[in-house]
Automatic annotation (TrEMBL):
Family annotation (PANTHER family): 1-PHOSPHOFRUCTOKINASE, 1-PHOSPHOFRUCTOKINASE-RELATED
Enzymatic class: transferase
Pfam family name, one: PfkB
Superkingdom of source: Bacteria
Pathways involved: Carbohydrate metabolism; D-tagatose 6-phosphate degradation; D-glyceraldehyde 3-phosphate and glycerone phosphate from D-tagatose 6-phosphate: step 1/2
Similarity field: Belongs to the carbohydrate kinase pfkB family. Belongs to the carbohydrate kinase PfkB family. LacC subfamily.
SUPFAM superfamilies, A to Z: Ribokinase-like (SSF53613)
GO biological process, one term: lactose metabolic process
Role noted for this protein: Catalyzes the ATP-dependent phosphorylation of fructose-l-phosphate to fructose-l,6-bisphosphate.
Keyword ATP-binding belongs to the record: yes
Protein's organism: Ruoffia halotolerans
InterPro entries per the UniProt record, alphabetical: 1-PFruKinase, Carboh/pur_kinase_PfkB_CS, PfkB_dom, Ribo/fructo_kinase, Ribokinase-like, Tagatose/fructose_Pkinase
Name recorded for this polypeptide: Tagatose-6-phosphate kinase
Length: 307
């Protein structure tokens, strides 16, 4: 079974306008509410690509109800711990630039965290895949991420992790199947400015030395680099298109990659589908459709650049 975990989900309120004037009343041209949070975005994309999956984490209040309903409409199975608090709303402004305002989200009580761990302890079996994505909710620490990584390792479950510097590095010793830092996160991890492909490869390999089995470094509009556990390095191109809202592009890339890897075990095809999924989401409001992903796949080139 495929599971996603979002500790701090969000309703993304996407506002489209031409320009934002700080300190003034701004009226937008168009607004949409989308179920969000990194693991949730992955669940939606996995399902659209034909992979049944279970979305987990913590949800509460009217915003939590909205997310549950949206997931059910997508055909994703929600198995969230119900909390006595309101799931956050994150504001995503698409004007001449993209601006994101992410709320803190509710504090998660230890008893609720325990409920989620008990659930995973019971359901996980060898061969499952768990995708843990997004930041910690208030009340949670890197220890909770490490506990998930440890549990997956002990049950021979593939663990996919997309999170920030400290949460990501804390889990490497448990050998995640895949991590996906972007260039900025890679720079933060090593406290350097990574701006060439050679540097991406160098620091990506260092993450493998620390335990990551496969590493994708995503580079926004410049594509991505994949370092595989079998030693090859691949680079993906980006297709042409109009960027509507790049929120969730990274999540889509991970989900698109995993969907194809589960089907084929083939790295080049998986990177191609991951790259198409990332770009397709950047060219959409919310998460991409399968139709657009299939269309963009034809335009993406994968180049072997190492190994
Ligand atoms: N402007 C863009 N044009 C075309 N493709 C894009 C663009 N932005 C992202 N992509 C595709 O999506 C992939 C992931 O994007 P990005 O590197 O922005 O991830 P991220 O920083 O994790 O994003 P987010 O946190 O918003 O999900 C890129 O590697 C690329 O293939
Ligand atoms: O605060 P986090 O957990 O880092 O990120 C949350 C978030 O910005 O990530 C997704 C896009 O990747 C959005 O749907 C959501 O609002």
């Amino acid at each position: 079974m495929l599971y996603t975990i979002t500790f701090n989900p969000a309703v993304d309120l996407v506002m489209n306008t031409d320009v934002i004037h700080l300190g003034e009343l701004n009226r937008v041209k168009r607004d949409e509410y989308v179920a969000g949070g990194k693991g949730i975005n992955m669940s939606v994309l996995l399902k659209r690509l034909g992979h049944h999956n279970i979305a987990t984490g913590f949800l509460g209040g009217f915003s939590g109800d909205f997310i549950q309903k949206s997931l059910k409409e997508e055909g994703v199975q929600p198995e969230f711990v119900d909390i006595d608090a309101i799931t956050r709303i994150n504001v995503k402004i698409k004007a001449d630039q993209e601006t994101e305002i992410n709320a803190n989200g509710p504090v998660i009580q230890e008893k609720d965290i325990q409920k989620l761990f008990n659930y995973f302890n019971e359901v996980l079996v060898k061969g499952d895949t768990v995708l843990l994505a997004g930041n910690a909710a208030p009340g949670m620490t890197s220890d909770h991420y490490v506990k998930v990584a440890e549990l997956c390792a002990s049950k021979q479950v593939d663990f996919v992790l997309d999170s920030n510097k400290d949460l990501l590095t804390a889990c490497l010793v448990h050998k995640p199947f895949l991590i996906k830092p972007n260039a900025q996160e890679l720079s933060e991890i090593f406290n350097v400015k990574v701006d060439s492909i050679e540097e991406v490869i160098h620091y990506g390999k260092m993450l493998q030395e620390k335990g990551a089995r496969n590493v994708i470094v995503s580079l926004g509009g410049d594509g991505a680099v994949l370092l595989t556990e079998t030693g090859e390095v691949y680079q993906s191109s980006v297709p042409k298109g109009e960027v509507i809202n790049s929120v969730g592009a990274g999540d889509s890339m991970v989900a698109g990659f995993i969907a194809k890897y589960i089907e084929s075990g083939q790295y080049e095809d998986s990177l191609k589908q991951g790259a198409a999924s990332g770009s397709a989401t950047a060219f959409s409001v919310g998460i991409a459709t399968k139709e657009l992903i299939d269309q963009l796949i034809k335009e993406i080139e994968i180049k072997r650049i190492g190994g």
